[in-house]
Amino acid sequence: MLKITIFKGKDSEQDIFTELKAAGIIGISGGRLEAREKLERVRSLISIAELEGYWAQSTLNHPETELGYGYDEGRYNIQEAQKFVMKSFDEHNA
User: Fold this and answer.
1) What is the mean pLDDT of residues 56-74?
2) Which residues, including other chains, have CB under 8 Å from residue 16's CB and lie 6 or more apart?
3) How far apart are CA 92 and CA 56, in angstroms?
4) 83 burial class (0-12, 13-18, 19+ CB within 10 angstroms)?
5) Cα Rg of the chain (Å, integer)
6) Which DSSP string corresponds to the chain?
7) Is pLDDT above 70 for 59?
8) pLDDT of residue 16
9) Which of 25, 92, 24, 36 is nearest to 64 (CA)?
10) Per-residue confidence at 92, pLDDT binned at 50, 70, 90?
11) Nearest in space to 38 (alpha carbons), one of 51, 55, 56, 20
């Protein structure tokens, strides 16, 4: 199974960005606004670094949390990213 880091909304956007570049996929767990605001900050770092093909703009509504996710489209497609982040969150919180 793919090991994906699921960050909390309080975690540093620089740490999230670094993991996204290294692993190609991340998740962010938190409240709706918290997850979306953190994704926005990570998106800004992606833009500043001029990274092509990295996405950090969507969230999934999970029964226990809002799950933001980011991924490298050279390694994952959107369906894989959603599935892997959801599954990682569920396994980590089982």
Assistant:
1) 94
2) 7, 26, 28, 38, 42, 70
3) 21
4) middle
5) 12
6) -----EEETTS-HHHHHHHHHHHSEEEEEE-HHHHHHHHHHHHHHHHHTT-TTEEEEEEEE-SS-EEEEEEETTT--HHHHHHHHHHHHHHHT-
7) yes
8) 98
9) 92
10) confident
11) 56
Question: The tokens of 57 are what?
Answer: 């703009």
Residues 17/43, Cβ–Cβ less than 8 Å: no
Rounding to the nearest 10 degrees, give the CA dihedral for residues 7, 9, 12, 16: 40
Say which residues have a Cβ less than 8 Å from residue 27's Cβ, sequence separation at least 6: 4, 5, 6, 7, 67, 68, 69, 85, 88, 89
Residue type for position 78: I
Mean per-residue pLDDT, 65-79? 96
